[in-house]
């Protein structure tokens, strides 16, 4: 057991008694509904897994109250009476787990992925989504107020314990509240009281239709972080008004599409980044206040509550990565919590691309309904894994969990591979968290890891494996460029820089504008070096999520890194390069540089293929050893190969 007494103490919210102070925040996961928007077994089993994990409250995300306000195409339709039966089924299955279950109701407004967008004023969203926006007529506003009330009544009919109104993140209610989006000159615009009128009318309508005893939480922004936006002073002013209106709790978040601080911050942002906003709002009210923002460590969550900075802590991505985080935290098993890395790739980036949500750290997200039908293999085998990078460790862990005997060999003296090198770059240390998780889990499940040991015929003979999993990773590939091997500059690969094999000079050219090139450039610039990046592609770091890339680009800008894209290199000179770039094909000549770092294409390390003819064991190539790709594919492929019973 653990001493997280504050986090695991009960709390009263309206008419609800909640067993602990962890709320799984609403996430638009973009799966689990049919073509009518009715929930399916996929969404039910996704929530069941998190209910079993011990969270106190959880929310269905993206419940649209009107077909013209869908944030994304594959989210629950709350505007239709026909949705109630499938919701009832989901609620009935969740109820036995003593979790308070709710729905977040919303209208996307100008941030909807629809061709015909509406908003308080005809002002397009500042980022992410594009397209014309039409200003709502007064009669349409009144209709939408009714839509929120009707949807809340459907939620109560379906058996949900509460609802949350999404009045944050730049969606429709927030648009009415923010001067940035609301230029109306009628009773719904202008003054502060007019701008919050829409929200107050919605609350009144819900209380009329769903009952005054049905808890209604409100998610508001503590700060829009955009010019002429809603600010913390506005949130503090609104809080007591919402309390008097009967709000059950206030959930304080931040950001809109196009804000300087992103709603879903990446690993570059400190943990608990929005707690100060909740703390400010809490000073104005006596009702429970929820905080959110890069909180993944339950010990931090407990401290926040202990220090009276908030009453409840919301976690979203942390519960995607590990549904059983609450249970493990309560038992003090912190090393067993599968960590969110803050990469934003499987969750927000996939969803904004209108793909089903997922998680780099946890490939099971969205597949819970399929995995419950899978059984562990009856036959137990001996598995030899070559490579202790993320793919090798993930495979070793999963094989061991399913009962196989597993041996890992790693040619280096420590685990991690290229991911461990990437974790040395500024702001990306959390990549080590997933490595630590897989390594410790593998060892706890009896996996033997032999360092300074390469895969060899002798090792195969001694181990006698049934299957050999090759996860030997990849290495930088040297390009063919005129003058590259005649230059007087120090020639290095990105791995040489990050593992300190080669020390870069004071003026560095980085060839490659993908994620490895940019984080290497950041690493060098942080040390005070002058860095220029030459990217032969059209875009920078396409393999990163847009949220993660935003913070990295801001760092590069701050550190004075010069970026060129659409580069055509004519020649590498003795102390620089001559190239054309951009659409205008302007010629640039760089001089007085002392180091050139290659960080472009990677090539798989498959030298062990020659051993396949010396054994009857089945070989499997996974991760970068199969084809250099993103971490998401490495981990999912590793776990899938371990579940394969063939």
Characteristics of this structure?
646 residues, alpha/beta, TIM Barrel, Rossmann fold, FAD/NAD(P)-binding domain, 3 domains, 8-stranded parallel beta barrel, 21 helices, 27 strands
SS-derived structural category = alpha/beta
SS summary, helix count: 21
Name of the CATH class of the largest domain: Alpha Beta
- CATH topology of the largest domain, by name, is TIM Barrel
Average pLDDT for all residues = 95
Biggest beta-sheet profile: 8 strands, parallel, barrel
Secondary structure: helix percent? 25-40%
Distance between the termini: 40 Å
Which stretches are poorly predicted, pLDDT < 50 over at least 5 residues? Answer: none
Alpha carbon gyration radius: 27 Å
Q: Sum up the overall morphology in one term.
A: globular
SS elements, strand count: 27
CATH-level-4 superfamily name of the largest domain: Aldolase class I
**How many separate domains make up the residues?**
3
Using the 3D structure, state the CATH architecture of the largest domain: Alpha-Beta Barrel
Structure, described:
The structure is a single chain. 32% of the residues lie in helices and 19% in strands. The strands form 7 sheets. Strands 3-4-5-8-9-10-11-12 form an 8-stranded parallel beta barrel, surrounded by 6 helices. The chain has a 5-stranded parallel β-sheet with strand order 15-14-13-16-27, covered by helices on one side. The protein has 3 domains: 11-370, TIM Barrel (Alpha-Beta Barrel), CATH 3.20.20; 374-476 and 603-643, NAD(P)-binding Rossmann-like Domain (Rossmann fold), CATH 3.40.50.720; 484-600, FAD/NAD(P)-binding domain. The chain is globular and about 75 Å long. With 646 residues, the protein is an alpha/beta fold. Helix 14 packs parallel to helix 21.
């Amino acid at each position: 057991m653990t001493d997280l007494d504050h986090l695991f103490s009960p709390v009263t919210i309206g008419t609800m008694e909640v067993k602990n102070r962890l709320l799984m925040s609403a996430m638009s996961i973009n799966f689990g509904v049919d073509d009518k928007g009715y929930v399916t077994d996929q969404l039910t089993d996704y929530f069941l897994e998190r209910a079993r994990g011990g969270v106190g409250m959880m929310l269905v995300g993206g419940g649209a109250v009107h077909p013209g306000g869908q944030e994304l195409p594959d989210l629950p339709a709350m505007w239709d009476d026909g949705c109630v039966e499938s919701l009832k089924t989901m609620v009935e299955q969740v109820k036995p787990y003593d979790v308070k279950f709710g729905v977040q109701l919303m209208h996307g407004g100008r941030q909807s992925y629809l061709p015909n967008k509406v908003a308080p004023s005809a002002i397009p969203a500042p980022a992410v989504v594009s397209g014309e926006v039409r200003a709502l007529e007064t009669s349409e506003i009144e209709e939408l107020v009714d839509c929120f009330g009707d949807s809340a009544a459907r939620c109560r009919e379906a058996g949900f314990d509460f609802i949350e109104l999404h009045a944050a993140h730049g969606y429709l209610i927030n648009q009415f509240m923010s001067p940035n989006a609301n230029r109306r000159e009628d009773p719904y615009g202008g003054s502060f009281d007019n701008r919050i009128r829409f929200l107050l009318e919605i609350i009144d309508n819900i209380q009329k239709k769903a009952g005054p005893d049905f808890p209604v939480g409100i998610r508001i922004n503590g700060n829009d972080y955009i010019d002429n936006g809603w600010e913390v002073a506005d949130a503090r002013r609104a809080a007591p008004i919402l309390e008097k209106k009967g709000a059950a709790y206030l959930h304080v978040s931040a950001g809109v599409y196009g804000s300087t601080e992103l709603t879903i911050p990446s690993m570059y942002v400190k943990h608990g980044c929005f707690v100060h906003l909740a703390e400010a709002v809490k000073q104005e009210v006596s009702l429970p206040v929820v905080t959110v923002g890069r909180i993944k460590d339950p010990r931090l969550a407990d401290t926040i509550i202990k220090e009276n900075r908030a009453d409840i802590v919301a976690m979203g991505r942390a519960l995607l990565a590990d549904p059983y985080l609450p249970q493990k935290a309560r038992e003090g098993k912190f090393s067993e919590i599968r960590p969110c890395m803050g990469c934003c790739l499987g969750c927000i980036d996939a969803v904004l691309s209108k793909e089903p949500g997922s998680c780099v750290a946890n490939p099971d997200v969205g597949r819970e309904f399929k995995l419950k039908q899978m059984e562990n293999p009856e036959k137990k085998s001996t598995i030899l894994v070559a490579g202790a990078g993320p793919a090798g460790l993930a495979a070793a862990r999963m094989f061991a969990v399913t009962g196989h005997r597993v041996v890992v060999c790693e040619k280096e003296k420590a685990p991690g591979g290229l991911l461990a090198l990437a974790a040395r770059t500024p702001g990306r240390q959390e990549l080590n968290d997933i490595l630590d998780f897989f390594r410790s889990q593998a060892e706890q499940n009896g996996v033997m890891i032999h360092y300074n040991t390469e895969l060899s015929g002798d090792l195969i003979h001694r181990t006698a494996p049934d299957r050999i999993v090759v996860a030997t990773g990849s290495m930088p590939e040297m390009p063919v460029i005129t003058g590259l091997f005649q230059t007087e500059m120090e020639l290095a690969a990105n791995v040489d820089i990050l593992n300190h094999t080669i020390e870069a000079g004071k003026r560095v050219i980085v060839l490659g504008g993908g994620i490895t090139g940019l984080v290497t450039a950041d690493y060098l610039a942080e040390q005070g070096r002058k860095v220029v990046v030459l990217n032969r592609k059209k875009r920078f770091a396409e393999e990163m999520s847009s949220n993660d890339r935003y913070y990295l680009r801001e760092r590069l800008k701050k550190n004075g890194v010069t970026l060129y894209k659409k580069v055509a290199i004519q020649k590498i000179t003795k102390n620089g390069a001559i190239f054309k770039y951009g659409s205008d094909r302007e010629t640039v000549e760089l001089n007085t540089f002392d180091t050139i770092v290659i960080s472009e294409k990677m090539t798989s390390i498959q030298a062990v293929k020659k051993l396949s003819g010396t054994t009857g064991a089945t070989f499997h190539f996974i991760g970068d050893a199969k084809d250099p790709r993103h971490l998401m594919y490495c981990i999912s492929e590793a776990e899938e190969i371990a579940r394969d019973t063939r």
